[in-house]
Design brief:
InterPro entries: 4pyrrol_Mease, 4pyrrol_Methylase_sf, 4pyrrole_Mease_sub1, 4pyrrole_Mease_sub2, Cbl_synth_CobM/CibF, Siro_Cobalamin_biosynth, Uropor_MeTrfase_CS
Number of domains: 2
EC number: 2.1.1.133, 2.1.1.271
Pfam families: TP_methylase
Bound molecules: S-adenosyl-L-homocysteine
Number of strands: 10
Oligomer: single chain
Family: Belongs to the precorrin methyltransferase family.
Number of helices: 8
CATH topology of the largest domain: Methyltransferase, Cobalt-precorrin-4 Transmethylase, Domain 2
Pathway: Cofactor biosynthesis; adenosylcobalamin biosynthesis
Length: 285
């Protein structure tokens, strides 16, 4: 544990009324991708527990000088919840800062339960997930009209077993967009599962390493057949999102089914159709 400051005196609380522990999504890496709300909470936090180097920057940049800051990387879940409960006993605002969005692969519930049991109020502030940041970095749309309208957030089985029916092969059978977390070192398993689910060797796959990190982001584009070797060549072994999707590369397609929302013939709540359907150019090249 790496505490930056000695605990300031408790001016805000009596032991009978604990402060709130805010689970804040710090975003994918770029400190500017935290929400305004998350930023405001850091600025008034009495204590911050952050999850490793990924989010330390935001914590140290905006926290008050007397804020107690600790890195959770060497703590067990029990130590983390004990730390959060102790800090909530003495400050009004305690922040648990997590990468991306706290609700994705973030041990949120494991930490909330002991706080609930201790009677400490909690709240969650969403964050920009690395899945969204990776799509943005690569200028890809995860959904595309008439191609796929579905996104699956998943991972391949590592030490954490996958529940029944959620093998990558089973999920890939939908041929929708797959955002695959925590799996860059298991790329062989990823491509084997896509192949077994009927994806062609030429199907595009993009890997984004450290999406949004200023100066460190890498984007590797390949196919089911080539992506593993390309990532190895680029020495990408951590902090990467694998996106497999029939939508990839659509920026360069010459025919595209346009979104109905902006279609001139489509009347919706905010706009009346202005062009008769027959006059519409469909799939403009
Ligand atoms: N809650 C986080 C995910 C934490 S799990 C979120 O919403 O993004 C950690 C995994 O997230 C990594 O193995 C990697 O797959 C992905 N990841 C986290 N930050 C990333 C980034 N900046 N670029 C690409 N992938 C990232």
């Amino acid at each position: 544990m790496n505490e930056r400051a000695i605990a300031p005196p408790d001016t805000l609380h009596s032991a009978s009324k604990p402060g709130t522990v805010w689970f804040v999504g710090a975003g994918p890496g770029d400190p500017e991708l935290i929400t305004v709300k998350g930023h405001g909470l850091i600025e008034r936090a009495g204590a911050i527990l952050f999850a490793g180097s990924l989010v330390s920057e935001a914590a140290t940049r905006w926290a008050p000088a007397d804020c107690v800051i600790a890195d959770s990387k060497d703590m067990t879940l029990e130590q983390m919840s004990a730390w959060l409960i102790a800090q909530a006993a003495r400050c009004e605002t305690v922040v648990r800062l997590q990468t991306g969005d706290p609700g994705l692969y973030g041990a949120l519930i494991e930490l909330v339960q002991p706080l609930d049991a201790a009677g400490v109020p909690i709240a969650v502030v969403p964050g920009v997930s690395s899945a969204m940041a990776s799509a943005a970095a690569a200028v890809e749309s995860l959904t595309l009209p008439e191609v796929t309208q579905t996104v699956i957030f998943t991972r391949v089985e590592g030490r954490t077993p996958m529940p029944e029916g959620e093998s990558l092969e089973a999920l890939a059978a939908h041929h929708s967009t797959l955002c695959i977390f925590l799996s860059i070192t298991l790329m062989g398993k990823v491509t084997a599962a896509l192949t077994a689910a009927g994806w062609s060797p030429d199907a595009p796959v993009v890997v984004v390493h450290k999406a949004s990190w200023p100066g460190e982001e890498k984007i590797v584009r390949g196919t089911v057949a080539t992506i593993q070797a390309l990532c190895r060549e680029a020495r990408i072994v951590s902090q990467s999102m694998i996106i497999a999707s029939p939508n990839l590369g659509a920026r360069h397609w010459t025919t595209l089914a346009k979104s109905k929302l902006y279609d001139a013939s489509f009347t919706h709540r905010f706009r009346r159709a202005s062009v008769p359907v027959d006059h519409l150019l469909q799939d403009t090249p």
